[in-house]
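User: hey, got a sec? need Serine palmitoyltransferase 1 folded
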Amino acid sequence: MATVAEQWVLVEMVQALYEAPAYHLILEGILILWIIRLLFSKTYKLQERSDLTVKEKEELIEEWQPEPLVPPVSKDHPALNYNIVSGPPSHNIVVNGKECINFASFNFLGLLDNPRLKAAALASLKKCGVGTCGPRGFYGTFDVHLDLEDRLAKFMKTEEAIIYSYGFATIASAIPAYSKRGDIVFVDKAACFAIQKGLQASRSDIKLFNHNDMDDLQRLLKEQEIEDQKNPRKARVTRRFIVVEGLYMNTGTICPLPELVKLKYRYKARIFLEESLSFGVLGEHGRGVTEHFGIDIDDIDLISANMENSLASIGGFCCGRSFVIDHQRLSGQGYCFSASLPPLLAAAAIEALNIMEENPVHGQRHRVNSGALPGERREVSPSSESTDPVTSEEAAEGSMHSAEEALESGHLEENQHHHLPSV
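Assistant: Yep! Here you go:
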């Protein structure tokens, strides 16, 4: 029975072959030939090679000259010739053996040489040693770290704070901890170099608005709102951030925080506020631009600042709601992979906070002194009017030339803030 069925199928195939159109048979024949060719042909061809003799190889090696890793730099370049500071950089400073009036320091409150900070650091040094030799998550958390985080949170009137061992890495680690590929970040064109590096690490979609121009920012937010309406499914999973500085390193101007908060709620964005220069300086008690404008601290999603200015220590901190800060303990690269802040520096920062709370007049005196400077000292140089992002090479070169000019005149002053990449 099976043999009859097979013969019947074969008969049908032959009949179908006779009934098929000619072009169909030709096409099938070409395909069959092409398959046979692919099966029996080689997938690659051996390239002809000519073996070199040992002598020819040695000659080629001797002739080869590698390209320099970096372009040639003159030995007289300012970056290769350091200005050596002798003693603490207080009101007067000795640079290269020459005594100068210090206008260049970020020691805003004059606490760098404070006896109380020295005593606190020395006591911690005797108790805990010099460093930690481990990140916070791997035997690098000391009791003084937890005390400092608690003090910073209470001082800033937030739920929680987290400290980093390097000021530059604070905001540069915080931004990519939250903003990822596909998210949108609206950032001021005058943002400091640390923010720029954090944005690069986040790989987010960056939209720059003109410096302190709320109309331009609102235009970008409206355009994004229209784009979201075209693709609501994508808009639901896209996060939007506004990144600004309280007091801008590049221009010396204060951000219009009240207008930013209004735009935040209107267009459903999150605000990241970098306060490295405004912390300890602005506000009645030195809490920064939020206190300066009387803005509720809960209106800001994340506040970042370093402790290398007003607190006369090292490192930085972020503060905000607990669920926001705790995320950095798992995702902040500078927190997870760097050795924690040396205990002696954390103790010094705590003592600096004590002084700020006991004597808020420190920040008030700083603001009065700034206003008392002659007009030509208060004005930002014309070159700092530019809001274009500054590269690290431009920053280093500019700061060196400024320092050289200041030393020649006998006044060490920083009149081009945008050239300093330290924040």
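Quick note: The mean pLDDT is 83. Let me know if you need anything else on Serine palmitoyltransferase 1.
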